[in-house]
Known about the structure:
The chain is an alpha+beta fold.
Amino acid sequence: MRKIICTLALGALLCGSAWAADKTIKQRGCELSVPETWTVESKGGEANSPDKKLTAIVGQAGFFSVESFADAKKMAKGANEGNKVTKETATELELEGPSMFDKPHVYRVIPTGAKTFCVGEVMYSGAAALPEARKVARTLKAAK
């Protein structure tokens, strides 16, 4: 019984919210949620954790040569060569690996229109920051 309670408690900690309140960063019709303790940059679309180990960036990409989300996913994979696909469905793509700034990142793309897409990237330092980077990246959505 004690083992079951501990497992449930640990699951709640891991699956529940890692932060009590959120801030939203928005850019060009897309948004990410970050913990209340993060600093949102004045230019918008970017936020940093208090210890500067995580940086979240959000924006919208529109590609003139892209006819479908499948094409956008191919472009994202090509631009993030060396990244591992951690999730790929008809409505999302998630990659993990080195960013163009040589920091590890979690990179997500979701469709918002025929040729427009929300892109969220969370760069991090140290393996211990990866779970929070994933959690922030997975809040990516079209802004309301």
